[in-house]
Amino acid sequence: QVQLVESGGGLVQAGGSLRLSCAASGRTFGRLAMGWFRQAPGKEREFVTAITWSGGITYYADSVKGRFTISRDNAKNTVYLQMNSLKPEDTAVYYCAADPLDYGSSPSEYRYWGQGTQVTVSS
Length: 123
Known about the structure:
By secondary structure, this protein is mostly beta strands. 0% of the residues lie in helices and 50% in strands. It contains no helices and eleven strands. The protein has strands at residues 3-7, 10-13, 18-25, 33-39, 46-51, 58-60, 68-73, 78-83, 92-99, 112-113, 117-122. The radius of gyration is 13 Å and the shape is globular. It starts with a strand and ends with a strand. The mean pLDDT is 94.
């Protein structure tokens, strides 16, 4: 089992920045592919970004490419999502996800999920 706890969400003005963190426990973090997803009210959960267990490969949704950066610190069992140039359409609950096999862009490809953290971007 893996437990994931997100933090760092909040309210920010358009153009601002936030850094989300996801702390993992319960399994060797360094062997987990990690991803971030988000879900706005009335919408399906959508892929944001993912990173391989080594951190060597990252993958971004077109909507966040160039603005968001995923990174990980395996010594701290933590993955980060740096979000810059935030837009009102980035408003959503952001979820951290993990899987021992591989990273992907579909929620069904991830076995473990955090409880989510709210990000609200005001215009």
